[in-house]
Design brief:
Order of helices and strands: EHEHEHEHEEEEHEHHEEEEEH
Number of domains: 1
CATH superfamily: Metallo-dependent phosphatases
Structural class: alpha/beta
Number of helices: 8
Largest sheet: 6 strands, mixed
Helix content: 25-40%
Number of strands: 14
CATH topology: Purple Acid Phosphatase, chain A, domain 2
Radius of gyration: 22 Å
Distance between the termini: 76 Å
Length: about 350
């Protein structure tokens, strides 16, 4: 599916001051050359996730700065793969607030001169939460509202570009219950079956897939919480999903949701989590990665990538006391690390002398 551009090519975007800061690059090499496989010339594309567009905290202006940074990329990417959580949140905001968030996302995204492809995030649904602010029987509850507004036909789909195959997955699985409609974090059997046959039809073409909620995430180790099951950070049917990706030798699964850059390789598949474009929901970068996105390059059967950041100062709301404390703590931690680094580089601490033993 390729989203219609007629509605999305209109809108205004104010340019913001920004700097692109590429970081580490990783690569995967395929066996065939472009000439042997009939590939077109190399191309790039962007993985852009967790934009959480909102007028609060000047999140719409931050997203404009992000889009402007993508427009300044050279070479220009062929398209953008959205990674989900495009709007700030529809699960516990009012319908009117969610409507405005979607409108701003659509308006700012329209400035892109290239196609973009949506992916469903857990915050892109209306009212699938115990904290919902809409009636449980609202006709647009769930995925319908954002899909209608974005002219988005299917929540999971695939497309081809220049000899490569791309798959957009939906990791938000609606369920019913005594407290009204909710969701589970999983792909689900029907979509997994579709995925297997879609990959089969691709007949070995180099493939990249994208999901909002990860199949592979290291949050438990990062937080040093071995007692945590990590539910919510990965899809519950991750083994089934990963098995299909491995069987069909998918190059990479692009992930979002966790707001920090992670890169893992397992059984031939790269699992790449891009930084959130919104950082910590447009309130700094205290979750671990500054606001950014990933640029990927396809050359023959080779895939390489570079993580980019753009400058954005947080603008907390007057009531954002928790966020202000988190920003201050993050800055204090960074300053302390710089202080310790300077001390440790100045000279070795005098430890007790080691006796030297000679073998006789």
């Amino acid at each position: 599916m390729r989203i219609s551009r007629r509605d999305l090519m209109r809108g205004a975007c104010a340019a913001g001051a920004l700097t692109l800061l590429p970081s580490d690059r990783q690569s995967m090499a395929g066996a065939a050359s472009r000439a042997d496989a009939g590939f077109e010339k190399p191309f790039t594309f962007v993985h852009l996730t967790d934009t959480h567009v909102t007028p609060k905290r000047r999140g719409d202006a931050g997203y404009r700065a992000c889009i402007e940074s993508i427009r300044r990329l050279d070479p220009q990417p062929a398209f953008v793969l959205m990674g989900g959580d495009m709007a700030f949140d529809g699960t516990y905001h009012t319908k009117a607030e969610f409507e405005e968030q979607i409108r701003l996302f659509k308006e700012v995204s329209a400035v892109l001169d290239i196609p973009w492809y949506p992916c469903m995030g857990n915050h892109d649904v209306l009212g699938l939460s115990k904290r919902r602010k809409v009636a449980s029987d609202d006709p647009e509850i769930g995925k319908k509202m954002i899909m209608d507004r974005l002219d988005w036909k299917n929540s999971y789909y695939s497309f081809d570009h220049a000899g490569w195959h791309f798959i957009v997955l939906d990791s938000v699985f609606p369920v019913g219950g005594p407290q009204g409609p909710l969701y589970e974090v999983k792909i689900g059997p029907e979509q997994l079956e579709w995925l297997a046959y879609d990959l089969g039809a691709a007949k070995g073409r180099p493939t990249v897939a994208v999901t909002h909620i990860a199949a592979f995430c290291n949050n438990i180790q990062i937080a040093a919480r071995p007692d945590s099951k990590g539910l919510g950070h990965i899809v519950s049917d991750t083994v089934e999903l990963r098995t299909i990706l491995e069987r069909h030798q998918v190059k990479a699964l692009l992930q979002g949701h966790n707001h920090r850059t992670e890169e893992y390789r397992l059984n031939g598949v790269w699992y790449l989590t891009s930084a959130a474009a919104s950082g910590a929901w447009w309130a700094g970068d205290w979750v671990g990665s500054p606001p950014g996105y990933t640029v990927l390059r396809c050359d023959g059967q080779q895939l390489t990538w570079t993580h980019h950041t753009f400058l954005w100062e947080p603008h907390p709301e007057p009531a954002d006391e928790v966020e202000r404390e988190a920003i201050a703590a993050h800055k204090a931690f960074a300053a302390e690390q710089e202080r310790l680094l300077e001390i440790e580089r100045a000279g070795r601490k005098p430890w007790p002398k080691q006796e030297t033993y000679m073998r006789r």
